[in-house]
Amino acid sequence: MIGLKPVQIRTHSKNMSESKIFFIDRATNKIEVEKVYKESYLKFLYGNHFFSRSLGKFVLPFFIKNPLFSNIYGFIQKQSFTTSKIRNFINEFHVDETEFEQPVSAFRSFNDFFIRKLKPEARPIAQGENRAIIPADGRYYFYQNLANTPGFIVKNEKFSLEALLQDQQLAQEYQAGSMVLARLCPSDYHRFHFPCDCVPGQPRRVNGYLYSVNPMAVKQNIRIFTENKRVITVLKSREFGDILYIEIGATNVGTIKETFLPHQPYAKGDEKGYFEFGGSALILLFKEGAIQFDNDLMDATNRGVEIRCLLGQSLGVR
What we know:
Elements: E1 22-25, E2 30-33, H1 39-46, H2 50-53, H3 55-65, H4 67-77, H5 86-93, H6 110-114, E3 131-133, E4 138-143, H7 161-165, H8 168-174, E5 178-184, E6 191-193, E7 199-200, E8 204-206, H9 215-218, H10 224-227, E9 230-237, E10 241-249, E11 256-258, E12 271-275, E13 280-286, E14 292-293, H11 295-302, E15 306-309, E16 314-317
Parallel strand pairs: 1-15
Antiparallel strand pairs: 1-2, 3-16, 4-5, 4-15, 5-13, 6-12, 7-9, 8-9, 9-10, 10-13, 11-12, 14-16
């Protein structure tokens, strides 16, 4: 896969209000600086300054632990007057509208634009029965063996699989397995897809909060992934065994929509569902030895840098 040149990047600092968010664009192999949506709002709630340490302690629980705020915000994004924001958002975040299945004029609200579909040719699917694919556009970390991983995102800090899955036996089955951790930004395509041919089971919902999954927040509290609301689905596959597919809501995500039918066969790249407005995250868990991630993906994570991947790109092989 792509070879990565050595580069020094500050990525493990918890003081994210004073450092930029870097990522590698897999398509170009270039280091990019992320343009953060509502950056000042995130810095206020999660930054390392007076307001976030004092006033933020009171403001954050109110907005995050009270679903009313996200519900109201999500409702507003579905109103017709929000179409006026679409063009400015496309221009500011350099969203490629040539990939859209429908023209911009067809969207009836900002949320309509947010859950847009893409032309099939915009995201070609990596071929091969023994090759899994990236399930969604986003910024990724990859962990080949969880038992030997010193930390997730932040060195020496890990979240509990049992807390994530709310199932002790299931957590034990994956404790030495492999994990894909994806963060979807508001500017990303927000539909998620199956990584391989599989038969998905009944999705299980776990109630929780709606903390941001932006690095500003996650590097302060890695347990966000186990505290936010989430949906867990077991994918049964011939090539990769049982895969756990977990969608995680975040700030302003009104709904996680599942568009598949349980217990029906799906092909690699078929749509599984979508997130409504807001940031969000995905986690895939494979059992030990079920997959070998591509070298360039592992190289980026070993250097502590997110790598931006697109739906359909190669994830790894059996």
